[in-house]
Each structure stands twice: as C-alpha cells, then as structure tokens.
Amino acid sequence: MSFLARLAKSAKGAIKRAIVQHHQRSGAVLFSDTTLRDGEQMPGATLEPADKLEIALALEKAGVHSLDAGFPASSEQDAEAIRMMIGKVKRPVLTALCRTVKSDVDAADRALAGQPAHKRGVSLFVGTSPLHRQFKLQKTETEILRIIEDNVGYAASKFEIVAFSPEDASRTELPYLCEAYRTAIAAGATTIGFPDTVGVLTPEKARDFLRRIQDGVPNIDRVLVAVHFHNDLGLAVANTLACIAEGAHVVQCTVNGIGERAGNASLEEVAMALDLNFDQYGRKAKIDTTQLVPLCHLVQRLTGIKPAPNKPVCGQTIFATEAGIHQDGLLKNPDTYLPFRPERVGAEKIELVLGRHSGRRAVSNRLAELGLPSDDTHVGVLLERIKQLPKGVILDDTLVRELATGG
Ligand code: KIV
Ligand code: ZN
C-alpha cells in the first residue's frame, strides 16, 4: 500500500472513531428501525417498494437514527426499495442486511450507490450458537471466526458503517460470543449487535449478557452496541430497556412490534417508556413522540397487520373508557387515569364510551355535547335506558339521541 493510500486509510479510520465516540458520549439512545426488514418478515406483511419509501419518510420524520432498509441480496424488490430511498430519505443512516458473503455486500453496495458515505452502511450476520454452527452452517467455531474476519473486513473496505451481529447470540456460549465480537471489531465493525433471535431472554439475563460482553470484549470501546430483541415471551420491550440501563447505544425496533414469529421490540413502546422515565434512564430517545400514532397507523394500513385494540401507545381503545369512576376522573383532569395525554403521541382524543358501566357525569357530558337537556332527570332516564341495552350494542351519537329523546 502506498504512503498516500495508508494516510487516507488512517484518516478514514480516525473519522469513523470520532463518529462512534460522538454517539457514545452523547448518551442518546439511537433508534434503528427494522420494520422494513424484520417487520416485513412477518407472514402477510409484505410491502411494495413505494410503501417502504413512504414508511421510511415517516420514520425519518419521527427521528429514527438508522433504517434497516432491506436485504438486497434476497430480493430485487428489496434492492429497488433501497434505491428509491436514495436522495429522498436524508437524515437516517440507511443500512442493508447481508449474510457474511461478499456477494451480499456487493449487492448492498449497488443498492446504496449514491448515498453519502456517512449515511450508508451494511449489517452483516452469521449464526454463532451451537445449533446454528452444527445444523445450519455445519462449520466449526474457527471456520466461522475466519468467515467473520474475511467478510467484515471486506465490508469495511467498501463501507464506513459496518454492523456485525452473531445470529442467535443469546444462545451462544459467552466466551465464543466475545471472540466473535473481538474478531469483528478488529476486522473493522463499527457496531456490534446482540440479537436475541428466538426471544428467550428475560430482562435480568439480557442485562447480564450485556455486562459480560462489555467485560469480555477488550476492543468494545471502538464500537456502538446495538440490541435486537424478539418478543416470543412478550419481553422484547422490557429486555430492550434493561439493556439501555446497561449502556446499549442502539435499539433495534419495529413499528407496532411486527416481525418474525411474535415480532420485535415495539418502537413506540420503547420510545414512550424512555420518554416517561427520563428520571430512571437519564437518556434521551430523540424521537418526536407526536409522530408515533400516525406512524403506527401508516404501518398498519400498508402492511394490513392490525394491532390488538389494547396495544400500548397506538391501540384503538387505549384512550377510551366506559368505566364510570374513570370517566368522572378524566372529566375532572385527564391525567387522573392516563399515563400520557393523546396529543403527546399524536392520537386524537380521549373517548368516553357510554355503556353499562358508565356513570352520570359521562352521560351528562355527552348530552351537553349533543345539545340535549343534561339535567339530573334526563341523565337518570338515559342511564337507565343504556343499562337495558343488550350486550354488544354500539352506542353512537344517533342511538344516544334516540334513547335520550325517547325515539
Ligand atoms: O433476529 C435476528 O437474529 C436477526 C438477524 C438478522 C440480526 O434479525
Ligand atoms: Zn430479528
């Protein structure tokens, strides 16, 4: 290598390190969204390239730091979606998923052509657990380490941003896992991922893993640490938060928690948990929370995957209540029975649903809203009629009017 080439290489290395250090010092939790890749792996959630662009722009508006934008080597549509984002999605880093195979890195390089170097990256993965080594890859530990070294090195020759994830990390022996990370960092990785690929961890174990990795990987200060949890035990968000408390820099999430099997950590839930508990974590999410519900609705519409009505943050009924005591409290002060107001997450409004469990205040409030007499007698009559209704009847304004006027 010539003197000038060596100089250029070391300058590039210094810039990379400065960027990593900047993120490490800022203390902010960086959101890496994987809705367009792991989210789309959910059966039925297939997105067209134009849909992906629309979601990517909404994610940018919400403030995510990077997008796992697709797996170009796996399908032409993935490559096309990434190409469509070039020049349009400007702030987040766009990364492309790759196996530890040079042709995957080349496919990512082609798909991301034209994107500025500091805004494009690759995310390499290879299975490291005994199950993956023996049954999927049929390779020895040493062979896999060589594959990591070769391919991360190759990726680092083409990209400034290179993430490496040992697939099934949470079922990999800790000393070998640490060796895999050490190898990847020495070969040029700028981020190391910790994927709980089949979602088996609990928050205590997740945190313990992170602590041991930090202790067992001597060159870890050169990279950002990203965590990636699947929700097979319903613990993906809790595990993500536990790792934030342990110093993870990047959290990989999906909108509405969609993803492989039981899905991934839900972006909106992690963001709101951080927003509400700054006293505990002391770390900003840099997410504009008012964009969360519009983002969830967009992903729901384009994937066709509808979250449960009581889904935290974006479920259809989370700002609705039928219970008299709660309705009374909400009318006196919305904060009495809410963790946050609808406008904080971009939701519409509180809904006081009339039904068997409603109380006088909510009924009187609805009558007044409809411009009908709302004195004690009218309220009493309407409440009695509501309680007689058969199960399942939806009390919309027309029916309330009919019942109130005796029609
Ligand atoms: O869950 C997982 O292991 C993944 C890898 C591709 C990182 O999504
Ligand atoms: Zn995953």
Your description of this structure?
The protein has 407 residues and is an alpha/beta fold. Helix content is 46%, strand content 13%. It has 16 helices and 10 strands. The strands form 2 sheets. It has an 8-stranded parallel beta barrel, surrounded by 8 helices. A two-stranded parallel ribbon has the order 9-10. Strand 5, helix 7 and strand 6 (191-196) form a beta-alpha-beta unit. Helix 2 (49-62) packs antiparallel against helix 12 (292-303), helix 8 packs across helix 9 and helix 9 (236-245) packs across helix 10. The site of 3-methyl-2-oxobutanoic acid (KIV) has 9 residues, from strand 5 and strand 6. Zinc ion binds next to loops.
Describe the structure in brief:
By secondary structure, this protein is an alpha/beta fold. 46% of the residues lie in helices and 13% in strands. The strands form two sheets. The chain has an eight-stranded parallel beta barrel with strand order 1-2-3-4-5-6-7-8, surrounded by eight helices. Strands 9-10 form a two-stranded parallel sheet.
